[in-house]
Write a structure and sequence with these properties.
The chain is an alpha+beta fold. A hairpin with a 2-residue loop joins strand 2 (about 150-155) and strand 3. The strands form three sheets. The chain has a four-stranded antiparallel β-sheet with strand order 2-3-7-6, covered by helices on one side. The longest helix has about 35 residues, at about 240-270. Helix 9 packs antiparallel against helix 10. It folds into three domains: about 15-130, Butyryl-Coa Dehydrogenase, subunit A, domain 1 (Orthogonal Bundle); about 135-230, Butyryl-CoA Dehydrogenase, subunit A, domain 2 (Beta Barrel); about 240-360, Butyryl-CoA Dehydrogenase, subunit A, domain 3 (Up-down Bundle), CATH 1.20.140.10. It contains eleven helices and nine strands.
């Protein structure tokens, strides 16, 4: 029998700080995000007032070192996953309005050169949180997720980028983009590209979901940048696999928030919806479907916590992150589908939010980069 690990006992109890953050963000999601989710989708973007409220959460300055104008507080991966889950409970598009800038800030803070951090981090504190856009999502679905649909030809002090990135959130708000690209040896790194550089073209894209977050495609055609625009500087190489794995945990946490929203919506609906003189939840087929949704949601929660905890412990979390993301993509879509099915004709109308959640959940298995922990 395996010995009990007294150093790292199995304990899912949230710390006092985690619980306070969870409660605050969950309340914000319910009162400030969810009521405006439908209008945000209609408008194709959040209102300026709502963006100001999102920015006032101060989640971006929280992780920026004090030397660059932030608070310099270290956030563990479990706490980050909890935060993303809580925000997505309100709306996935609006949650990504926070998660994408958070991931960008985290990447720059941990991997940027001193020059890059000095130039960009203060602007993320005092200016727009969308100052730096993130281009990780590959335009070609056949591309290996740990490689890029953009190629980087490195020739001394000059780097030439070619290819496309899709699903770039708030690209029109950004002045700089952080783009992943694969070089000749197959190594994938990140590069800063200015919006006004020659060879950069933005193309607005409309997707079946995430309509509340303006998404664009970036097309790079012989875009020449300096070697100093490589993340971390000339000779720096990021562990791209670890970055994608972290993003996958974050995307799974966002999916969990939406799955919980679907479950919490269909339970009272099936209890109150009467057909043939009894609540439809009395029917075994309905009850079993709701039970499966609850089991799958809770299983996803435990998988996310385990992935994030492994990362916090400095363990190899690649396998667990991959399994978690696969589970989130498959069962998130199933929970969204079952939510629509349980509402019947109502599930196919804008009168209820389940069809919105269903469409948004479809993005989980397609977008590799929209969050990180």
């Amino acid at each position: 029998m395996q010995e009990y690990n007294t150093e790292h006992p199995f304990d899912l109890t949230l710390t006092e700080e985690q619980q306070m953050t969870w409660d605050m963000l969950r309340k914000f999601a319910e009162t400030e995000l969810r009521p405006f989710a439908r209008q945000t989708e209609i408008d194709g973007k959040p209102s300026d007032e709502l963006l100001e409220k999102i920015k006032s959460l101060d989640l971006i300055p929280l992780i920026i070192p004090e030397a660059y104008g932030g608070m310099g507080l270290e956030q563990d991966s479990v706490s980050n996953a909890l935060a993303l889950e809580a925000l997505a409970y309100g709306d996935l598009s609006l949650a990504m309005s926070v998660s994408v800038p958070l991931l960008v800030t985290q990447i720059i803070s941990e991997h940027g050169s001193e020059e890059q951090k000095g130039e960009l981090l203060p602007k993320l504190v005092n200016g727009s949180i969308f100052h730096v856009g993130l281009g990780i999502n590959n335009a070609l679905l056949s591309t290996d997720p740990y490689q890029s649909s953009v190629t980087a030809e490195e020739n001394g002090e000059e780097i030439i980028l070619n290819g496309s990135k899709t699903g770039v959130a708030f690209a029109n708000h950004a002045n700089t983009f952080l783009i992943s690209a694969s070089n000749e040896s197959g190594e994938c790194n990140l590069y800063f590209v200015n919006k006004d550089q020659e060879g950069v073209a933005l193309e607005d894209k409309e997707f079946m979901g995430l309509k509340g977050a303006p998404l664009s495609q970036i097309n790079l055609s012989n875009c020449k940048i300096n070697a100093s625009q490589k993340l971390g500087g000339h000779n720096y190489s990021i562990n791209y696999e670890s970055l994608i794995d972290s993003s996958r945990i974050g995307m799974s946490a966002l999916a969990l928030g939406v799955c919980q929203a679907v479950l919490d919506y269909v339970v009272p609906y099936t209890n109150e919806r009467v057909a043939f003189d009894e609540p439809i939840s009395n029917r075994q087929s309905v009850a079993f479907m709701v039970a499966d949704m609850a089991i799958e949601t809770e299983a996803l929660r435990l998988m996310i916590y385990k992935s994030a905890a492994l990362k916090d412990l400095g363990e190899d979390f690649h396998k667990q992150a991959s399994l978690t993301y696969r589970f989130a993509a498959h069962h998130g879509m199933k929970i969204g589908t079952d939510g629509v099915q349980l509402l019947g004709g109502h599930g196919f109308t804008h009168e209820h939010p389940v069809e919105l959640w269903y469409r948004n959940l479809r993005a989980i298995g397609i977008f590799e980069g929209g969050a990180g922990v």
